[in-house]
Amino acid sequence: MLVPSRARAFAPSSVLTLPSFLIPAFQNCAPAPAARRQFSASTSRPSKLGRTPISIPPGVELTIGEPYILKDFTTYKQTPRRTVTVTGPLGKLDLNVPPFLQLDHDKEARRLTLTIEDNQQKQQKEMWGTTWAYIQRYIIGVSEGHTAVLRLVGIGYRATVDKRPKLEQYPGQDFVCLRLGFSHPIDLGVPEGVTASTPQPTRILLEGINREKVMQFAAEIRRWRVPEPYKGKGIFVNNETIKLKQKKIK
């Protein structure tokens, strides 16, 4: 028979206590709520280009059309759009503007200001500066025009502008004929709205009011001889340069 004191010592206890050195340290402190950390603490700022007023030079007229619905036949979505028409001495260009862009045209001061509805949405902020750049390029295009100069660097590289009546896609189309070391010449049709000329056998001058068309055609010509870094040969657009590499000697 056990002694009462010993019986109380071996009796099961309802509360189990452990020494403090056996309790993990993270259980002593209550877990703090996880704070959500933002990627950037800086406040959103408006576009530097978008908030800059666009000055309209004399001889250039800007017309803002009425809103209309643009239907996409692939996704069957209907998107509201507006058309901005820029007219100048060299021609006319049209630009479709998203509905969230607001255009304030001051005819007396000949100034155009662009604003957006929500400064927190990423798409609106992106299209704010993009639309500003398009309108600015259109104004320069219809008043002064855009140019691109291509340099042909290589032995025997030549270019001419000729007619190809059998290959014309529209009446009076010119063709840029390239001789770039292939077994046959390369004939590239000049797109409508772009003018091509060769002031020198190794120079091609492209002119037009739409900068996108001019640079796209320049890229198509450059694709036939991309500048290579060992001999420095190829077709260079405007002020394009390339850093030469040393040949690998075994």
TrEMBL record:
One CC-aspect GO term: mitochondrial large ribosomal subunit
Cited Pfam families: Ribosomal_L6
Domain of life (superkingdom): Eukaryota
Biological process (GO), any one: translation
Occurrences of domain Large ribosomal subunit protein uL6 alpha-beta (ranges): 154-235
Keywords annotated in UniProt: Ribonucleoprotein, Ribosomal protein
Record GO terms (molecular function): rRNA binding; structural constituent of ribosome
Recorded family membership: Belongs to the universal ribosomal protein uL6 family.
Protein name (Swiss-Prot/TrEMBL): 60S ribosomal protein L6
